[in-house]
Amino acid sequence: MKKKIITIDIPYDFYLIGIVSPAKDYRISSLINKNVMINLTKLEDLISSKKISKTEKKDIFYSKYHYRDEVSRTDYYLIANKSAGECLIPDRNQVDYFFMINGNQNVIDNSNILQKIKTVSLVQTAFEIDIRQLKSKQNLIFE
Q1: How far is C-alpha 87 from the chain's CA centre?
Q2: pTM for this one?
Q3: What is the pLDDT of residues 36-78, one digit of tens each?
Q4: Is the pLDDT assigned to residue 8 strictly greater than 70?
Q5: How far is it, in rounded angstroms, from Cα 49 to Cα 117?
Q6: Buried (b) or exposed (e) across 23-56, using 16+ Cβ within 10 A?
Q7: Residue 5 lies in a domain
Q8: Which of 24, 67, 74, 50 is nearest to 139 (CA)?
Q9: Which residues contact 95 (CB under 8 A, 6 or more apart)?
């Protein structure tokens, strides 16, 4: 019997900002809320499983915050990249947090939000990330 291969093309149509900061997740989310004028709230952690051996897996928990702007129908996420010595997106191991903007990109001024995040006192740097260049971008698809 011939095998059939089905490929699914997932649209990665969100804007992604990498944030470098030594601050704890609750602190950085509070400061981003203040500067960007949103209300990120803590959600259940994002769980990623890492294979330790053929029979053993280890769950790794990454903190996740969310805010939904009903007017612009835009979702904002703050996701930790590091937990228990592991990275959610290993090819961006210098990044501590990802700030994801998912929604109507015609309504949102992403560069203005990036500038506001850069002014957060505990943010060392923040920069736009080209999603197409990420090898493990599928780790940012959830819900």
Answers
A1: 12
A2: 0.88
A3: 999 999 999 999 888 777 888 889 999 999 999 999 899 999 9
A4: no
A5: 30
A6: bebeebbbbbbebbebebeeeebbebeeeeeeee
A7: no
A8: 50
A9: 18, 19, 20, 81, 89, 129
DSSP H helical ranges for 5-129: 25-36, 110-118
Residue of 15, 12, 39, 18 lying closest to 105 (CA atoms): 15
Q: Please count the structural domains in the chain.
A: 1
Distance CA 59, CA 49 (A): 4
In a domain, 10, yes or no: no
31 close to 121: Cβ distance less than 8 angstroms: yes
**100: in domain:** yes
In sequence order, what are the beta bridge partners of 79? 64, 98
- Residue 124 has phi, psi (to 5 degrees) of -75, -40
- Cα angle for residues 101, 61, 57 (degrees, 5° grid): 125
The range of the structural domain enclosing residue 20 comes to: 15-133
Q: Which helix (H) or strand (E) holds 123?
A: none
Residue 2: inside a domain: no
Using alpha carbons only, what angle is made at residue 139 by residues 93 and 80, rounded to the nearest 5 degrees? 50
